Amino acid sequence: xxxxxxxxxxxxxxEEQLAELESGLLKLNxxxxxxxxxxxxxxxxxxxxxxxxxxxxxxxxxxxxxxETTLDCVRSNKxxxxxxxxxxxxxxxxxxxxLTNAARDGGSVDEARSRTLIRELEALANGETPAATEAxxxxxxxxxxxxxxxxPVVEKPAVNDEGFQPIPFSFGDFDEEPAAHxxxxxxxxxxxxxxxxxxxxxxxxxxxxLSRLGEMSVYCDMxxxxxxxxxxxxxxxxxxxxxxxxxxxxxxVRSVFEFAEWDCDLDIHTIEEDVVSEATDDEELPMQxxxxxxxxxxxxxxxxxxxxxxxxxxxxAAAVAAAETASKVAQVASRAxxxxxxxxxxxxxxxAQANQAAAAGQTIRVDLDRVDRxxxxxxxxxxxxxxxxxSVVENDSNGTSSINMGLExxxxxxxxxxxxxxxxxxxxxxxxxxxxxxxxxxxxxxxxKSVRLITEGENTEVDKTVIDKLAEPLTHxxxxxxxxxxxxxxxxxxxxxxxxGTVRLTxxxxxxxxxxxxxxxxxGINREKVRQKAIDNDLIAADxxxxxxxxxxxxxxxxxxxxxxxxxxxxxxxxxxxxxxxxQALGGRxxxxxxxxxxxxxxxxxxxxxxxxDGMVVTVAGQTLVxxxxxxxxxxxxxxxxxxxxxxxxxxxxxxNSFCPLVDVGRILNFRNIQANPMDGVALLVESEGGGQRALxxxxxxxxxxxxxxxxxxxxxxxxxxxxxxILGDGRVAxxxxxxxxxxxxxxxxxxxxxxLAATG
Amino acid sequence: xxxxELIAFRIADQEFCVNVMSVREIRGWTPATAMPHAPSYVxxxxxxxxxxxxxxxxxxxxxxxxxxxxxxxxxIVAQVGLKVVGLLVDAVSDILTVTDENIQPTPDIANEAExxxxxxxxxxxxxxxxxxxxxxxxxxxxxxxx
Lengths: 761, 146
Fold this sequence. Notes:
The structure holds two protein chains of two kinds.
Chain A: H1 3-29, H2 35-54, H3 58-75, H4 83-105, H5 111-127, H6 131-134, H7 140-148, H8 151-159, E1 169-170, E2 185-192, H9 194-198, H10 203-211, E3 214-221, E4 239-246, H11 249-256, E5 264-271, H12 273-283, E6 290-291, H13 294-297, H14 309-313, H15 319-328, H16 333-361, H17 368-395, H18 402-425, E7 426-428, H19 430-447, E8 451-456, E9 461-463, H20 464-485, H21 489-494, E10 501-510, E11 513-520, H22 527-536, H23 548-553, H24 563-566, H25 576-585, E12 589-595, E13 599-607, E14 612-620, E15 623-628, E16 632-636, E17 643-646, E18 650-655, E19 658-664, H26 665-668, E20 682-687, E21 693-698, E22 700-708, E23 722-727, E24 733-737, H27 739-746, H28 751-754
Parallel strand pairs in A: 1-6, 8-10, 15-24, 19-21
Antiparallel strand pairs in A: 2-4, 2-5, 3-4, 7-9, 10-11, 11-13, 12-13, 14-15, 14-22, 16-20, 17-18, 18-19, 20-21, 23-24
Chain B: E1 4-11, E2 14-19, E3 23-28, E4 42-48, E5 51-57, H1 58-61, E6 74-80, E7 83-89, E8 91-98, E9 103-104, H2 112-117, E10 118-124, E11 127-132, H3 134-137, H4 140-144
Parallel strand pairs in B: 2-11, 5-7
Antiparallel strand pairs in B: 1-2, 1-8, 3-6, 4-5, 6-7, 9-10, 10-11
Keywords (chain A): ATP-binding, Chemotaxis, Kinase, Nucleotide-binding, Phosphoprotein, Transferase, Two-component regulatory system
Organism (chain A): Shinella kummerowiae
Protein name (chain A): Chemotaxis protein CheA
């Protein structure tokens, strides 16, 4: 595995973390106050930061650091996650995603935006956390010079190439006399196991929480730490002996370890105050504890986090990096020790995030190619099984033989296998929906509207390729819904509506397809204006009699939307034809229903996978072709009276008093040289890109079936008029018609001219 | 000087051979689905275990008479560049192991068409076998769309 692969994995994990982050923040936004949610959000940012540090992605690290700091304030209840706070955080999550993308693809980010957010985050962390100053370190200012003093002593061992030298340090001022009044002291033996780090806990944070309970001294036992070459960065080697003088008692101490209890050896017992000093004396600490500047640990503290965040917190930069850091920062040797520890912890944590996910849902990451190969093979299996059945039926007239029964069973099994394999590619639409949340935020910001996005059915699963191609049209539609659909808050209020507009995005399965609905509670379509616009653009006659539905559907018309002209329209219409086209390219359909004053609902119906297609199997000039069902509006048997010649070779068919050009598919595809007699065949009324209708003439319809799409380009070349190939039940190859290309060809563009044809060479 | 293996096959009364390394498998003829707008030597597509495979009438492609495929014809499935193509031939006759020295240059009486695909000729027990360069038979078009 080279560095790039590891990096790729990191970015994949980042995507997961970012999704986790966003959904966590949204949950908080909805009033969820579960500490686990906050922890999950914190962990996500922390893991990204850790990984980014390892790859030297400084921009990402520094932003994540500030973000993490603020999140930590929320986690430690220093900062109330109000709507305002969360707004900043959601924006920060967006920027974090941008930074991640920029780091991956080398793009740039809006630096001004990220700097503004860094300031806002810092303001949140500092401004609203008075606790931070009175927090753990008793004398943060004084600690710094003290830390410098013992440093020379420690410097030598720290650069020792054998490994790390243990550096004990004390929290709080160790020399200080204990308070005179009676406060019980807890002795804690804390020995984390590997799992503790794997679950995203961190000893440093636990220790810091402990230090908040009262006076504390810590001895870190590093005896178990092996030399660098033998060290496993995911293993836990350190243990701590801690004594805390606290009035919270043993229970208070135990609560600190609440989430870590199962993953560490923990021994807590309370001793009397005056015994403490003895106890610590008895320990005969091998080295004098180094006074430790706690504010280093305290991310929210005022220490120069700006200057050295990468050094202090570049945790995941494996142990080697930590060793280098150790020599560099030997001035504050204790930092180095902390670093090493953090390095081990965080690298384990980031690597083990996957483990954690595994615990939750047991997932593996598989190369898509492998899945596709499996799907191909199963497709073959299905075809083979069909062929086998067919030949058995042909050779065996009595249908009760054991062969037949076995075949039936085989058929069921293959079908089940096919379904399960298809399910592997299926993914929940959640990631796309989450991206839409961001789009809504941005558009709401730009337009000054207040919008609430409600998503439902995020776990509805659909093929990955469909998901990938869904984002674009959906973004477009959401923009339209917010920009054109919803009214300004003042206007909404005047209308007696909630000033905050609602956009509802729903996904559900319905009869073998996925149905996605986008509903807003805005003004609905202004039919008068749409109608006028259509008349102005010569799309309809001035006196055309159109139903409301027909008017609504005009917005999908290609000629309707020329963005610059339509932008002042209060209805919709910006690029809806583009949306419709991309939905159709996915084999889907889109429709709209709108109620004036109450809003509009767009309904998209999409196939669950792009690997198969519902098609009508037809015969043309002795060849079997498949016409995608989504393109077909209706089929009809032409009557002689309905066919009208037009010019030299054109013929039109009249359908309910409108004339539609007849297109002989066999002719267009060069399967025959003379026009077939329309009366001998069947006409398929199709709608193509651009909305034009054509009647495609085929010789006969064989039936409807679902076919597996096979690429022609893989071994051959693109063929004009043909979208792809498929394999029918008899094992023969059938071609899938590219309806748009055929219709375009009938408009006079020759198919042959479109491309430099196949193998002429 | 090392030997290489060639697969020899027959089209009408002539023998040809291709490098064995480019041959994936040899199978019987099955009817192909005709392609619109295809050159006449492209007979159509067949299903090769789930992959859609173009079948080329090698006889026509080499400028000879069009084949009339029967059950006794053979399809040589060959890798050409990134693509896999089925070559329709009359029969596979032999596997030869030859060294470069056995391969004689194409005689200069050959016209441009033959020079284009013939890499050389082999003399084998009184037979003459023409070594074909598949990449030059299906040049850019096959790799362009890849």
